[in-house]
Design goal:
- InterPro entries: Yip1/4-like (IPR045231), Yip1_dom (IPR006977).
- The protein is mostly helical.
- The chain has a domain of 133 residues.
- 53% of the residues lie in helices and 0% in strands.
- It has ten helices and no strands.
- α5 runs parallel beside α8.
- The protein starts with a helix and ends with a helix.
Length: 256
């Protein structure tokens, strides 16, 4: 036994003693008392470290329930949108529909001797022409002629022809929308011719005279507007001739 004690002493020096085995959980490391005994360890003290993956305690919520603190409060004078609805233009103006200009163009067509305003006539306004084309087709429908396809088809072909011709004749050039707008507004007298066909037959001398008068009226108004908008002085007769050919086709649809 003494040999074992000598071997143990020579192998590793420690404070462990065989006599201390009866002491529970002490193991003879030190005389310090166990800090985890009841009543000795203060659990309210924060831990000095946190294990990896464990969440740190969050800050307590100091607000009121259902009443969160706003992160940004806009001033009363600041709007939530870029601009106010009061500053936006009317819907008809955004769509390019101006009833004042439509009325002025209509009066210019109905009064052939009235001087045309080039600034207004140079606008691309298709609201009035679409209404007049629809009214012309509806008037033909009252006479028993379903010619809506011919009306719109001839209108498109005539606008393309006049667009090419006016760009060759004028120095400034013209847009297709302007040509379609002017030719559409000048279709208004043709509605009167179709209205006469509802009351009496146009297949006679009286109908031919009325049709020739309406053709001259439409072509003269269209040529007047074109030379005013495009500054084509002295070329009204050259512009009125192709316009008369176009409106002559509409007159043939109305008469026959």
């Amino acid at each position: 036994m003494s040999g074992f004690d000598n071997f143990n002493t020579d192998f590793y020096q420690s404070s462990y003693s065989v006599d201390d085995q009866g002491q529970p959980a002490g193991y003879g490391y030190s005389n310090t008392e166990d800090p985890y005994k009841q009543g000795q360890y203060d659990y309210s003290q924060p831990m000095g470290y946190a294990a990896p993956g464990m969440m740190q305690p969050q800050q307590p919520y100091t607000g009121q329930i259902y009443q969160p603190t706003p992160a940004f409060t806009p001033s009363p004078t600041q709007s939530m949108y870029g601009s106010s609805f009061d500053d936006e233009p009317p819907l008809l103006e955004e769509l390019g529909i101006n009833f004042d200009h439509i009325w002025q163009k209509t009066l210019t067509v109905l009064h052939p001797m009235k001087a045309a305003d080039g600034n207004i006539m140079n606008e691309t306004d298709l609201a009035g022409p679409m209404v007049f084309c629809l009214a012309f087709g509806a008037t033909l429908l009252l006479t028993g002629k379903i010619q809506f396809g011919y009306v719109y088809g001839i209108s498109v072909i005539g606008c393309l022809g006049m667009y090419c011709l006016l760009n060759l004749m004028s120095m400034t050039g013209v847009s297709f929308g302007c040509v379609a707008s002017v030719l559409g507004y000048c279709l208004l007298p043709m509605i009167l011719l179709a209205s006469f066909g509802i009351i009496f037959s146009l297949q006679g001398m009286f109908g031919i005279i009325i049709a020739a008068t309406i053709i001259g009226w439409c072509s003269f108004s269209a040529s007047k507007i074109f030379i005013s908008a495009l500054a084509m002085d002295g070329q009204q007769l050259l512009v009125a001739y192709p316009c008369a050919l176009l409106y002559g086709v509409f007159a043939l649809i109305s008469v026959f």
